[in-house]
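Methods — Computational structure assignment.
A single polypeptide chain was analysed. Its primary sequence is given first, followed by the predicted tertiary structure written as structure tokens.
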Amino acid sequence: MSDLPPADLAVPAAAPARAMHFRRRSNAPLLPRDAVRRQGAITTLAFQLLGREQAIAFLNTDHAALGGRPLALATDSVAGLQSVERLLRAGDKQD
């Protein structure tokens, strides 16, 4: 007979210690507070007027009348925000 314990009584080997990995903070600059406010305002308005899916599509697709992506334009300046708001309120969401 063997001196080894049966397989069901064997003590499992301790798992090797795992190193803890953390994500490094991005080096990308954060948006200024006023840009964050504009982005939140236009996103909220679009969601209220269009619903989630249509709002996401509208905000992230280039629009010919605006000359760019509505979300980027609204985030960049007050004038851009106002242009996108007017377009949303007028009901012209198509290119």
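Note: The chain is about 50% helix and 0% strand.
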